[in-house]
Write a structure and sequence with these properties.
The chain is α/β, with parallel strands linked by helices. It is 38% helix and 15% strand. Belongs to the bacterial solute-binding protein 1 family.
């Protein structure tokens, strides 16, 4: 999965009138119909998978084959939709009442928004919510809205510092940097002593959050309905990024498709460190400098700022479209795809982190050493605000970050502009 949160999103979208699938109350189909006996369920389930089509999609399709073998009366229409396009594409289809999938692999930050618009079917009391006691609490919370379950957690993730052990060793370091100050020093030493770049940045809002969290900042203060993106703490965090760029500790960022550029440079050994998540494990291990030497691939928690080490909690949920004509089949599909057995298989083959506790101890998961490597980074994961407007907060910030990385602005005015944009999204919130 490539986490690139740059699809256009404006506040007006939140006020769109909901058509056939609901009235915008987030209470579509408030009492789900009693599910049919599994053996009698038939139909076709269209699933929009937003994972990486090359590295992840084939594994999910293997599990689909197992599902169809268990439920021969149900067929799955698998559609891979690029992550960057999926949010807007689903909203357009759901609003029109035509073309929406039965099941969507939904970013955790989209669930509250889609539920508030009436686009999602409530899942409580259906087979989709199976053995909820097994779920890790924070990933499970991402699927809740107004006290109801609209999504069940498929995978969880966060950001870590990924590093090339050999390049760090050549620069004189046996361990990765533990603080943001050390990050700059190590990156500059790698640059001067090895000829490789020290750090590559992904110019995307999600990837700014470890720097902001590290100084005690955040997008918003939900409890007090306050916009905090331009607070002194958030400013201090983004100033660290600005300094990494201007000092040369970070290579000059690509402003277009920066994710791919940073990832490719890391896999090819042209830079020593990047921030990325467990979804990139398979991609990285296929790279030139790691393919024949997987032990060279290091994973560590994001370096700590003056307040803490913190990176955003991410992941994906399975959600069911409220207007689906195949609800019973969709519930069974979600149940199967999200079982501990399926999660363990996904963890073993892709290194993606399960959301069910039993999956972590399953032999298929423990066979992949990357699962254990992500335990420490996950300890620093920060829960994001599960509010309907959450996904819309990324676009103004990424636009500002691009200007900052391109040298068109500096931290303080950039974040003031972002805060002003947030006032148009978060009606009634204070600065």
């Amino acid at each position: 999965m490539r986490r690139v949160l740059t699809s256009a999103a404006v506040a007006a979208a939140l006020a769109l009138a909901v058509t056939a699938c609901g009235d915008g109350s987030g209470d579509a189909g408030s009492s789900p119909a009693k599910s049919a006996a599994p053996a009698e369920v038939s139909g076709t389930v269209t699933w929009w998978d937003t994972s990486d089509a090359t590295t992840e999609g084939p594994v999910f399709q293997e599990i689909i084959k197992d599902f169809e073998a268990k439920y021969p009366k149900i067929k799955v229409n698998y559609v891979n939709v690029p992550f960057a396009d999926a949010r807007d594409k689903f909203k357009t289809a759901a609003q029109s009442g035509s073309g929406a999938p039965d099941v969507l692999r939904t970013d955790v930050g989209w669930v509250a928004e889609f539920a508030s618009l009436g686009y999602l079917a409530p899942l409580d009391g259906t087979p989709a919510v199976d053995k909820p006691e097994e779920f890790l609490p924070v990933p499970a919370a991402s699927g809740k809205y107004n006290g109801k379950t609209y999504g069940v957690p498929q995978v969880t993730d966060t950001l870590g510092l990924l590093y090339n052990k050999e390049l760090l060793k050549k620069a004189g370091y046996d361990e990765p940097p533990a603080t943001m100050a050390d990050l700059k020093k190590v990156a500059l030493d790698v640059k001067s002593k090895t000829g490789a770049g020290g750090l590559a940045l992904n110019v995307d809002a999600y990837f700014l959050l470890p720097f902001i969290y590290g100084e005690g900042g955040d997008f918003v203060d939900v409890q007090n309905k306050k916009i905090t993106i331009s607070s002194p703490q958030s400013v201090a965090g983004v100033k660290i990024v600005e300094d990494l760029i201007t000092s040369g500790a970070a290579v000059k960022p690509a402003l277009q498709d920066s994710y791919t550029n940073a990832e490719t440079a890391f896999k090819d050994g042209k830079v020593a460190m990047i921030f990325n998540g467990p979804w990139s494990n398979a991609d990285n291990l296929g790279g030139k400098v790691f393919k024949d030497n997987p032990d060279n691939f290091g994973v560590a928690p994001v370096p700590a700022g003056s307040a803490k080490a913190g990176s955003p909690l991410g992941g994906h949920d399975y959600t069911v479209y409220a207007g689906s004509k195949n609800l019973d089949a969709s519930y069974l599909f979600v149940q199967f795809m999200d079982s501990a057995e399926s999660q363990a298989k996904i963890a073993g083959k892709l290194g993606l982190l399960p959301t069910r506790q039993p999956a972590y101890s399953a032999s298929e998961a423990t066979a992949n050493p990357k699962i254990a490597q992500w335990a420490k980074p996950m300890e620093t994961a920060v829960e994001r605000p599960w509010i309907p407007e959450a996904a819309s907060l990324f676009q103004p910030l990424v636009e500002g970050y691009q200007k900052l990385a391109g040298g068109q602005t500096t931290t303080e005015p950039m974040l003031k502009d972002v805060a002003t944009a947030y006032q148009g999204i978060l009606k009634g919130w204070s600065l």
